[in-house]
Write a structure and sequence with these properties.
single chain, Rossmann fold, TATA-Binding Protein, 2 domains, eight-stranded mixed beta sheet, 14 strands, binds zinc ion
Length: 367
């Protein structure tokens, strides 16, 4: 598709630069970029991509906006608390640039869902905070040969690299065998908004270079930054011959994932938080869900296009997004969280438990 006169005017300050140019701007218009996670990194990443005129930006996030996000997740304001991030981000990004196509998805990323999240993308950009989800993205991007821009940040430090399948080291070449339970968490360690804008800007400039057909600056290199002392560096990283993702003996056939149905994540304002991620996208009909909840006199505190948040009782809040991912705050125990999920999703909405987990009923008893 050609650029219109209005687009040439809108993007004139970047078209005039050699780094992008007229042809480059056309390539941006015809590109689809997927950003996984619209939190601390994903907010400034999507803001820049959309303002710059990427044709289609897909945003994938299972979470809902909470008050402790607002100091760094610049897409959201007070009025968005309780809304699905994919929805709130979609609405905000449409206001920045209505011409850009935004594809919001409320999926939780794992080996079962990752293909749906990234298919038909020209570039995938990482705005995640979980290593297991990153490993799923890395494997799928290597298998589907999609460039993947890694980025991470915690406290005042951050890093980024551009993973080009078949050419550069992959994530597991330089960060193998990490476990989420052992990683520092921003909920307890904190994160400086300035490191997020630093790393996200590096990721965007790399993605733009790849779309335009230029060599990425971070192929085979890891960018490292610390805003506490303004140390910036690039270090060489190398492909591991024995890498089980990109090495010659790697087996990338899709395996049934052994992931957990329920995760106990670090608390919000001292409350327990459980996230339940069904195996499949449950494509919940929210009108139906809201009607059932209202008939049962449950108090809905936030109704959105992509999710609903309700007070289950005075201590427990439940957010359900369209994919079926449910975030249960205040349940204290996994068993209790699973029971509440089962009551709403299986009993009230009549969803087949097999779609949630192969052995859902058994898990319910064990927990
Ligand atoms: Zn590798």
């Amino acid at each position: 598709m050609e650029l219109s006169d209005a687009e040439i005017e809108r993007y004139s300050r970047q078209i005039v630069m050699d780094e992008i140019g007229f042809e480059g701007q056309q390539k941006l218009k015809n590109a689809r970029v997927t950003v996984i996670g619209v939190g601390g990194l994903g907010s400034p990443i999507t803001q820049q991509l959309v303002a710059m005129g990427i044709g289609t930006v897909r945003i994938v996030d299972r979470d809902v906006v909470e008050i402790s996000n607002l100091h760094r997740q610049v897409l959201y304001g007070d009025e968005d608390v309780g809304l699905s991030k994919a929805e709130a981000a979609h609405d905000r990004l449409k206001r920045i640039n209505p011409k850009v196509m935004i594809e919001p998805l409320t999926l939780s990323i794992n080996d079962d869902t990752v293909d749906e999240a990234i298919n038909n993308s020209d570039v995938v950009i990482d705005g995640l905070d979980s290593v297991s989800a990153r490993y799923s993205i890395n494997r799928a991007c290597v298998r589907l040969k999609i460039p993947y821009i890694f980025g991470s940040a915690i406290v005042t430090t951050g890093s980024s690299t551009s993973i080009i399948p078949g050419k550069t080291p992959c994530l597991e070449c330089f960060q193998p065998a990490l476990k989420d339970d052992e990683m520092p968490k921003c909920g307890t360690e904190g994160v400086h908004p300035a490191i997020l804008t630093t790393v996200s800007s590096v990721q965007v400039s790399e993605a733009i270079r790849i779309i335009i057909g230029k060599e990425p600056n971070l192929a085979n290199k890891l960018f490292l930054a610390d805003v506490a002392n303004l140390d910036y560096d690039k270090v060489k990283i190398i492909k591991q011959l024995k890498c089980n993702v990109c090495g010659p003996d790697a087996d990338l056939t899709i395996k049934k994932s052994k992931r957990k149905l329920i995760e106990d994540i670090c608390g919000r304002e001292g409350k327990s938080v459980h996230i339940i991620s069904p195996k499949e996208n449950l494509e919940i009909n929210l009108d139906k869900l809201n009607n059932i909840l209202e008939n049962d006199n449950l108090e809905i505190i936030r109704k959105g296009e992509l999710g609903t948040t309700l007070n289950y009782n005075e201590k427990i809040t439940v957010s359900i997004v369209t994919s079926g991912v449910s975030i249960i705050v205040g349940a204290l125990e996994e068993k209790r969280a699973l029971e509440i999920f089962s009551e709403i999703i299986i009993n009230k909405l009549k969803i087949n438990p097999e779609k949630v987990h192969n052995e859902f009923q058994k898990l319910l008893k064990v927990n």
